[in-house]
Design brief:
The chain is mainly β. The chain is 6% helix and 46% strand. A 4-stranded antiparallel sheet has the order 1-2-12-11, with no helix packed on it.
């Protein structure tokens, strides 16, 4: 992965890491990558790219194995759904699953994305 320094706020830059190629992601698709030990999902929707945590907050389902439809990522394990643009829970797991697991899904972290040529870059914290 290639690292890029792009201007941020006063005296600060943001570090962006090349994580995928534009040509490798069809519209409506997603892929999982590992960036500095973090599992991140990159999705393409309507020509735009988004990045968020790749592991479901309910019971650690790997979200890139799920579905991306109309901006919503569905976990392949228990069906929790997340807005790919915000990481917010759109639909939580069912009540019987919540009671059995004693857990529910919570919002996921999102990451800034930039496209430079054919590279999809994701911002990582310092």
């Amino acid at each position: 992965m290639t690292e890029h320094e792009l201007a941020g706020g006063p005296g600060q830059g943001e570090r962006f890491i090349t994580c995928a190629k534009v040509s490798d992601l069809a519209d409506g698709s997603m892929v999982g990558v590992t960036v500095e030990g973090r599992q991140i999902l990159i999705g393409r929707m309507g020509g735009d790219f988004y990045a968020m945590d790749a592991v479901c907050s309910h019971l650690s389902g790997y979200l890139p194995k799920g579905r991306l439809e109309k901006g919503v990522v569905t976990c392949p394990v228990h069906g929790a759904q997340f807005d790919i643009t915000t990481g917010r829970v759109v639909k939580n797991v069912g009540m019987s699953i919540r009671m059995a697991t004693r857990r529910e899904a919570t919002d996921l972290k999102t990451y800034k994305v930039k496209v430079v040529g054919d590279e999809v870059l994701v911002a990582v914290n310092r």
